[in-house]
Amino acid sequence: MSESQTVPEPHPPAPAAESITPPAGFIDILVKLFTEPRAAFAAVKAHPGGWWLPLLGCVLLNLLFVGVWVSKVDARQFIKNQIEESGRADKIPADRFEEVVDTQARFMKPFTLVIGPLGPVIASLVLAALFLFVYRFFYEGQVGFAQSLSVVAWSYLALALVTVPLTLAVMGAKGDWNVDPAGALGANLTLFLEKGQTAHALYVLASSIDLFTFWVLFLLASGYGVLVRKPTSSAMWGVVLPWVIWVVGKVALTALFR
Is 231 exposed, middle or buried (0-12, 13-18, 19+ CB in 10 A)? Predict the structure, then answer.
């Protein structure tokens, strides 16, 4: 009678190790936004919960700008310039013009200091919701709100890191803090136009053809391209068409009411 031999059972194959994307550091993502945008957004996609840090960066940079600008601007002169450039000066009775300027100037600085930190947050939430709809509905992408907000926040942080110091530097170099900060850099087609001799609607259109606007559109398209697994060129339409609609609407309203 043969002895029974215990045959060892074969060990089950070891499960394949999961591919885990290591968390990228804040500085690493930020640098790659300028050098390798899609690589940066790949890290953002893997860890979408990090939207709060770039959003906080946007808020702090905006507060920095507002703090410096408000301390130097002549509120009364700034409001007067804005009224005259908008074409509303002729609609205000001459005997009330100075009163209107004084009233608006009184509230300008407190309002600016309040809206300073809120502006980037509100804008980011609105844009994240808009692009979430665009890329889920038209591109059928599996995009979550946190991912969408991360792409928007990181894109605008990169933009703010360049435009905020440049705007302060340009205004300081000119010694004129009473110009509209939105047009201080002038990296658009208004460089070739005379403001006082150009139709206002055309000037608004020219101001929208802006180098920094195109850059942030590219960053957004890169980010959403990664989220929906499309090339940047294909994802570009999802950000360009809403921007075109916005610009056309802005120009049309200017033409109607100016």
Answer: exposed
- How far apart are alpha carbons 65 and 68 in whole angstroms? 5
User: What is residue 212's predicted lDDT score, i.e. its pLDDT?
Assistant: 97
pLDDT band at residue 208 using 50, 70 and 90 as cut-offs: very high
Q: Cα separation of 143 and 152, whole Å?
A: 13
Amino acid letter, 182: A
Token pair belonging to 13: 């194959």
Say whether pLDDT at 7 is over 50: no
Residues in the chain, how many? 258
Neighbours of 253 (CB within 10 A): 12
pLDDT tens for each residue of 37-50: 999 999 999 987 88
SS3 64: helix
Name the phi and psi angles at 46, rounded to 5.
Answer: -70, -25
Q: Which two tokens stand for residue 205?
A: 């259109």
Return d(Cα 57, Cα 102) in angstroms, integer.
34
Q: Does the pLDDT value for residue 8 go beyond 70?
A: no
Contact assessment for residue 206 and residue 189, using Cβ atoms and an 8 Å cutoff = yes
Beta bridge partners, 210, equal: 188
Q: Pick from 232, 233, 234, 252: which is nearest to 244 by CA?
A: 252
State the Cα–Cα distance between residues 186 and 157, nearest whole angstrom: 20
Rounded to two decimals, what is the model's pTM? 0.88
Contacts of 140 (CB under 8 A, 6+ apart): 228
Alpha helices in the chain (DSSP H): 26-35, 37-46, 52-72, 75-86, 97-137, 145-174, 200-208, 211-228, 232-257
pLDDT given for residue 23 in this prediction: 52
